[in-house]
Amino acid sequence: MALKDIRGQDTAIQMLKNCIINKHVSHAYLFQGPEGVGKKAVALAFAQALNCLDLQTDQSLPVLSWSEIDGCGCCLSCRKAQKGNHPDIHVIEPEKYTIKIEQIRKLRGSVFYKCYEGLYKVIIIDGAHYMTIEAANSLLKVLEEPPENTVFILVSSEPGKLPDTIISRCQQIQFQPLSTHIIEELLKDNRPEQGGDLALAAGLAGGSLAKARELLEGGEILIQRQETLEFIQKVWERSWSEIILWCEKWDKEKQKVKNILEILGFWYRDLLVYRTTGREEILINQDYLADIKRCTLSLTKINNALLLINKSIKQLEYNVSPRLTLEVFFMNLKIN
Ligand SMILES: [Zn+2]
C-alpha cells in the first residue's frame, strides 16, 4: 500500500512528506493515535517511499512535488517492501503483549550494518508501549546515538506508557480517529453485501476501522448492543434487584462491560444531539430513531449520564471490577 492509498490521515501524511521534501528525515518518529486508524499502514508506506528507487530521496535530486512523494509501487524496492521482504525494513511486534529486550538486542546488532539495498534502514516497532523497561532502555541507547540513515518508527495507541526519555527523542506524529463516512467507505470495499450493518458498525466504531471490522465479524456485539439499549430504556422502571442481577451477568467481563459503556455513550450522545439539533441524519443509532425521538429525559440527566460513562470507563482502565463499575454506574444514574 502506498501513501496515496491511505484514507483519513492527510495531516500525518503531509507532515511525513514534508520531511522527505525538505530532506529532514528524522531518525525517530512516534506515530500516536487510536487503535485501528492506519498508523502501521502509514509506517510501512513511509518506509517504502523512503526506499523507493524511483523516488530516490537522496540529496542530489531537485525538489519534488507533493504528489510525487510516494513509493512508485513498481520498482524492485517497492515490490519487496509490499511483499514484506525488504532487507532494510524491519517490523517488530509484541509477542503476547510484550516486546522483550532480546527483540531489541537483535535489532541493535543489525542497525549498525550498512543498508543492504535501500537508502534507509527503517525499523517499525508496532505496539511500542508493550516494550518491557529493559527493552525500552536498550532502545534508548540506540536512539541516543542513532546510526546514520536509520529511521525508527514507534507505533503506539498508548504513548503515555512509554518513558519520557524515549518520547523526547522522537518526532511525534498524531493520527486522528477516522470519520464515520471514511470507515463506511472502507468497509464497503470489502463487504458490499452487508449494507445497513456497515453504517451502524462504522458509527459504533469510535473512529477505528479495526473496531468496525471486529463489530461486523463478531456479530456478538450487535446482540449485546440490542440487549443494552433495551435495558437502558427501561432502567428507570427497573428495581434495584433487577439491575444488580443484570450487572452480575458481566462479572469479570472487562471487555464486554467496556463495550456496554461505549454503547451507552453513543446512546446518550444521540439523545443529546437529537435534543439540541433535531438532526436525524447525524445520529449513530439509526435503527432506534423512534426511541430516540420518544425519549423525554432532561438535558441535565443526559449530560450527567455521559459524565458517568466517562468516569466508569476510566475506572475500568484502573482495574476496578467490571461488575462493580456497572453497579456503581447505574446507582449514580438512578439517584442523580
Ligand atoms: Zn518504487
Explain this structure to me?
By secondary structure, the chain is of the alpha/beta class. It folds into three domains: 3-174, 3-Layer(aba) Sandwich (Rossmann fold), CATH 3.40.50.300; 179-218; 219-335, Zinc Finger, Delta Prime, domain 3, CATH 1.20.272. A five-stranded parallel β-sheet has the order 2-3-4-1-5, sandwiched between helices. 52% of the residues lie in helices and 8% in strands. It has helices at 10-21, 39-51, 76-83, 101-111, 133-144, 164-167, 180-190, 196-204, 209-218, 220-233, 240-248, 254-277, 289-294, 299-317, 322-335; strands at 28-32, 89-92, 121-126, 150-156, 171-174. Helix 4 packs parallel to helix 5 (133-144). Strand 3 (121-126), helix 5 and strand 4 (150-156) form a beta-alpha-beta unit. Zinc ion is lined by residues 52-54, 71-72, 75, 77-78.
Protein traits:
Rossmann fold; Zinc Finger, Delta Prime, domain 3; 336 residues; elongated; alpha/beta; 15 helices; binds zinc ion; five-stranded parallel sheet
Query: How far is the N terminus from the C terminus?
Result: 51 Å
Mean pLDDT: 90
CATH architecture label of the largest domain = 3-Layer(aba) Sandwich
Bound molecules: zinc ion
Q: Please mark out the parts with pLDDT under 50 across 5 or more consecutive residues, or reply none.
A: none
CATH topology of the largest domain: Rossmann fold
The strand count comes to 5
Shape category: elongated
Tally the helices.
15
Tell me the strand order in the biggest sheet. Answer: 2-3-4-1-5
As a whole number of angstroms, the C-alpha radius of gyration is 24 Å
